[in-house]
Design a protein that fits this description.
Length: 532
Amino acid sequence: MKILVCDPISPKGISLLQQRPEFQVEVLSTRLSEAELLPRVANVTAMLVRSETKVTRAVLEAAPKLRVVGRAGVGVDNVDVEAATQRGVVVMNTPGGNTVSTAELSFAMILALARKVPQAQVSMAQGRWDRKQFQGVELAGKILGVLGMGRIGSEVARRALAFGMKVKGYDPFLTEERARALGIELASDLDDLYHDADFITVHMPVTDLTRGMLNANAFSKMKPGVRVVNCARGEIIVEADLLAALDAGKVAAAALDVFSVEPLPADHPFRKHPGITLTPHLGASTAEAQEKCGLEVAEVITSYLLTGEVRNAVNLPFLDAKTYEQVKPYMTLGEKLGRLLAQLAPPQVDRLHITYGGKAQDLPNIDPVTRAIVLGFLSRAAVKDLNNINVRSIASTLGLTVEEKRSNEPVTFNEWLHVQVFNGDEKVISAGGTFFGSPNNPRIVRLYSTPVEIPISGTLLLLRNKDRPGIVGHLGTLLSKHQVNIANMSLNRDVAGGHALTVLSLDSQPPPAVLDELQNDPDISNVRVVQL
């Protein structure tokens, strides 16, 4: 497997990859443009980047063997995640590697704004001694508003509390219990935080909701003389509105490490504004952070390529090695259930309802199993490059709704995986599976709401037949005449003399002559052949 290291990462991370005999590692000496990258990624299985290299849709389309993109850092703005998902490429980052470094820089910015350290340094370097001009404020007793209480925001809050500040945090996903554990106050909404905060620090990703959130309207609601820090993403602040708020005195000062366009243009008005402290995107620029991120990205890529373990993926749920071992048998069973139903269901269906019962309801992560079921169900669709990463996205594109349910209702089996296929409100078919004795012995045990026992591999011949003496012998004789061997048989009737569902596991595909003869038999109907 070829791994392309596009941007500088820790030598220890590169060494970790080079130690694996399964990997062929190529390290680029310079950053390449999109046009230069295209011919270099044709045979690449994994790409490692930082913030410099852009993994665009065109790059992804030029890399048919690509399975994973690893970002040594938190933000993945330079990776087209949607295109990667559509092509079945996992995108992983290293959110923990630069947490402390970015938090420390953010707090250094807060201190710099409070005491005007950069401006005083410049004045001293110019030979002046202007003590009165650089009078600052104390942090003790001031309110720090933290926008985003994730890893970095929480670390900044801890440091602020140590300096005697009061912290008010805003995060749509932060609970009251978590806020109390951190020792902070949870802001009821953004306006609440804007109204009270003496300092505001940003720690949110760029989304449709956060892009441009610090704009003229937001600044108008802030306390006069507020100081603003942004070490997250430049697009969160409307730069022209920040300049206007600074010039009007609404914002006393700002410290910025990130910008909407990077590198910051030489003629950008930020560079000459006396109220702004600037650094060139230094959040993760410590020796410790670079080593952590380099090692972490190498580790997560190695684990994914060699064991299937998923960590820190932005387009696929977390799945550690232990959980993977637990869910793997269910994934195998689930994909076969999906394949079976795909070949028996009518063309127009719009919903899958998946029930996890018995011990299956206790699985720590059911998403990989659901993906396997949908993958099996869509396997017969004309979808290019379908896999378990893009399968949910493709199902949504095709208009197929996927529902999941953990059920504690009593079931006959220790483990129970049941899939129902609907067209509108009408259930058109269903199938259920379990394990006999061990996870290595999966079986389909219900089909068309009828008990069956079907191995999950090979060729299946399914039919409805009248319950009469000699029907089983007739089937055996007919298949024998055409040299088709029966490996397994499941037969279940509704009532004596009624109708039965018969499923034969065959060693080979039955020829058309067999199917013609079966379909012409007045006692036999619904003859279907399924490949598992």
